[in-house]
C-alpha cells in the first residue's frame, strides 16, 4: 500500500467517525405538527416532505434522527431546535 493510499484511507476513516453524530428529536405533547415541521425545515434544512415524515416518526415512535454530521455543524442546529421549544439532543 502506497503512502498516498494509506493517507486517503485514514482521511476516510476519520470522516466516517466525525459524521457519526446525530440529532435525535423526541416526542412531546406540547408542539403541533406544523411547528415541528416548520422548525425542521428551518433548523435542519429539511424539505417539507422530509420534515413531515420525521414529525410522523417522532409522533408514533417517540424519537427520530433528524440530522447527521460533524458535531460542529450539529450543535447550532440542535440549539435552534431547543430554542424553538422542541426536545432534541446530539448523540
UniProtKB/TrEMBL annotation:
<keyword id="KW-0378">Hydrolase</keyword>
<dbReference type="Pfam" id="PF02617">
    <property type="entry name" value="ClpS"/>
</dbReference>
<dbReference type="GO" id="GO:0008233">
    <property type="term" value="F:peptidase activity"/>
</dbReference>
<protein>
    <submittedName>
        <fullName>Clp protease ClpS</fullName>
    </submittedName>
</protein>
<dbReference type="GO" id="GO:0030163">
    <property type="term" value="P:protein catabolic process"/>
</dbReference>
<keyword id="KW-0645">Protease</keyword>
<dbReference type="InterPro" id="IPR003769">
    <property type="entry name" value="ClpS_core"/>
</dbReference>
<dbReference type="GO" id="GO:0006508">
    <property type="term" value="P:proteolysis"/>
</dbReference>
<feature type="domain" description="Adaptor protein ClpS core">
    <location>
        <begin position="21"/>
        <end position="83"/>
    </location>
</feature>
<dbReference type="InterPro" id="IPR014719">
    <property type="entry name" value="Ribosomal_bL12_C/ClpS-like"/>
</dbReference>
Amino acid at each position: 500500500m502506497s503512502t498516498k493510499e494509506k493517507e486517503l484511507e485514514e482521511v476516510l476513516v476519520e470522516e466516517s467517525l466525525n459524521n457519526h453524530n446525530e440529532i435525535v428529536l423526541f416526542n412531546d405533547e406540547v408542539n403541533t405538527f406544523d411547528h415541528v415541521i416548520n422548525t425542521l425545515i428551518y433548523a435542519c434544512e429539511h424539505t417539507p416532505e422530509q420534515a413531515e415524515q420525521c414529525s410522523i416518526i417522532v409522533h408514533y415512535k417517540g424519537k427520530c434522527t433528524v440530522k447527521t454530521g460533524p458535531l460542529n455543524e450539529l450543535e447550532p442546529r440542535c440549539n435552534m431546535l431547543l430554542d424553538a421549544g422542541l426536545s432534541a439532543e446530539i448523540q
